[in-house]
Amino acid sequence: MKIDWKKAIGLTAAVAMLVPLAACGGSDNGGSDKKASGTQNITLSVWAPQEDQAKNTNWLGKVEENFAKAHPEYNITWKNDVVSEGDASKQVSTDPSAAADVYMFASDQLGVLMDAKAIGQLGTDAEKQVKEQNGDLEVDSVTGTDGKLYGVPYTDNTWFMYYNKSKITEDEAKDFDAMLAKAKVTFPMSNSWYVGGFFDGLTLFGEKGTEEKAGMVFPKDGADITSYLADVVANPNFSNDDGASGLAAIKDGSADVLFSGTWSAKDVKEALGDNYAATSLPTFTVNGQKKQMKSFAATKAAAYNPNAKNPKAAAQFAAYLGSTEAQKLHYEMRAIPPTDKSLSDLTTDDIAAKAQADTMANTALLQSGLSGMNDWWTPAETFGKALVNKEITKDNAAAKYQDWVKQAGGKIAE
After folding, report:
1. CATH of 160-297+364-412 among 3.90.78.10, 3.40.50.300, 3.30.420.40, 3.40.190.10
2. Which positions are tagged coiled coil (predicted)?
């Protein structure tokens, strides 16, 4: 959705469109000074990653400048601090009343932020913006257990596949087994964000990740998949990516396939040159049945703090951080792929951005923001490490799979 941010809107209208009435507070907007001309003196505190505030790529500063120009009804004093999206929930929930008015967060933290009453519900206009800009998975990623929206996505957060197209054809890249038979494949099997990708049929707290009672449901044939993975790690063409070794192997030519996200695009492109390629995730075959690899997927989004002294302006700025204009600027200044569908032409020649978009649309599993997801990480990591260390074999695959499910507090599908 492309919003004309250059058209100044009255304060009362802004409240009706962007902030639920319950969050509006008094008409003095937190006690801010108001000049005779009608301009309001306000302070907005913002938490964002260091990279968005760096001297040579100060995206946040530019967005703030543009927002201020579009809203002459405010005389804004900006107070910026560095907090990454991954650390947002920890920092915000520690003391919501002292946290930033606006912050950027990873969507899998939504449940924690809601429990802490530290994230504001979007109003009518911002909700419309999010639904028009994004696909279903992105919208679901910022939808709370109450069905309301609580964040404005600006980029996807998932992983996909890079490969050397001089070694692997486009058709072969669609089949994990075909690649493993002829090329060197590295995969983060010991990483809990990746290992679940092989368990086709896994569901995490319902279709939209918001049903706590649904829990984690593991696929019925998971024991067979575990046995298959025991063969995968024993294959001489396979190597485990410990977080750094995979990219290093791509760079020195000892690997032809890497599973990672857009953060690796620049390095992989430099390493592979003209042979650089990326795509959404492949299928693999277990006992004659075709399975689809699926990556965990989330978004990074902007939110406002309902405890802010100026919640009306905070809500407006959070919506603007995820606007078409701001997402376009984010890509131009920092190569952050947008979620906004109207900007698809912007990334036409960006191989990694296209692979990410295709993955989100076709081969991704929404990473739930419920606190119950905390039960996934350690058991999944333990399981993955046991595979890599060859402690899991074809003979004990069924028992080890059942142990994993039990440790995670999940259940096996009937």
Report:
1. 3.40.190.10
2. none
In 107-159, the DSSP E strands lie at 152-157
Whole-number pLDDT of residue 229: 98
Q: Which two tokens stand for residue 29?
A: 């907007």
DSSP track, 227-284: HHHHHHHHSTTEEE--SSHHHHHHHHTS-SEEEE-GGGHHHHHHHHGGGEEEESPPEE
Secondary element (H or E) of residue 176: helix 176-182
Contacts of 95 (CB under 8 A, 6+ apart): none
Q: What is the DSSP letter of 304?
A: E
Q: Which residue, 377, 397, 395, is CA-closest to 226?
A: 397
Question: What's the alpha-carbon Rg for the chain, to the nearest Å?
Answer: 23
Q: What do you get for the CA distance between the two ends of the chain, in Å?
A: 42
pTM across the whole model: 0.86
**pLDDT for 284-302, tens place per residue?**
999 999 999 999 999 999 9
Number of other CB atoms surrounding residue 253 within 10 Å: 12
pLDDT of residue 56: 87
